[in-house]
Amino acid sequence: LLHLVVLAVVVVCTALGFWQLRRLEVRQDRNALVAARLAEEPQPLATLLERASPADPDALAERRALAVGRWDAAHEVLWQRGTTYGGEPGFALLTPLVLEDGRALLVERGWLPFRYRTTPVAEAEPPAGQVLASGTLHPGRQPPTGFWAALAPRNPPGP
Would you say the pTM of this structure is higher than 0.85? Predict the structure, then answer.
């Protein structure tokens, strides 16, 4: 019986080792794609959207883009409780950039410490008027489902 247990452990550990190697290959491919896209010159957002295929949701991921619009501070949000900067916990400040055609692009404008808990944040007010924003596009994130949803972080009650 002990030999069967040892054999099962060996099989499981070997399978996990090969799984880790496959994950490494996927991560290296992803890192190479990100490095290549970040080395490209920024493109106007409209140009990138025209070239993107709806069948490939990651076609725009990690692309450097330029967008012209106006900040909508009334609809900004604080995101990612628990991120730290310089050892201090805080939030990422996300502000919609309303494009010339009326669509909006959610832009991470920076990090704020926890003491700024309400939006709009007067101390981090965006510039008024039309602006040219330059940044990197990231794919949307889906909330975890099933078993993983129970393990996902939640906002504490209250403000």
Answer: no
Round to whole Å and give the CA distance between 69 and 134. 11
Dihedral sign, CA of 26, 28, 29, 34? positive
Widest pairwise Cα distance in the chain = 75
- 3-class SS of residue 123: helix
Mean pLDDT along residues 20-25: 96
| Cα–Cα distance, 158 to 64 (Å, whole number) | 37
Contacts of 159 by beta carbon, 8 Å cutoff, 6+ apart:
117, 118
Region of 14 (left: φ > 0; alpha: ψ -120 to 50; beta: rest) is: alpha
The distance of Cα 34 from the centroid of its chain, to the nearest Å, equals: 13
Q: Which residues contact 97 (CB under 8 A, 6 or more apart)?
A: 67, 69, 70, 71, 72, 104, 105, 106, 107, 131, 133
Q: CA-to-CA distance for 119 and 78, rounded, in angstroms?
A: 7
The pLDDT tens digits for 45-103 are 989 888 887 777 678 889 999 999 999 999 998 887 667 888 888 888 899 999 999 99
**H-type alpha helices, 102-146:** none
Q: What backbone torsions phi and psi does residue 48 show, to the nearest 5 degrees?
A: -60, -40
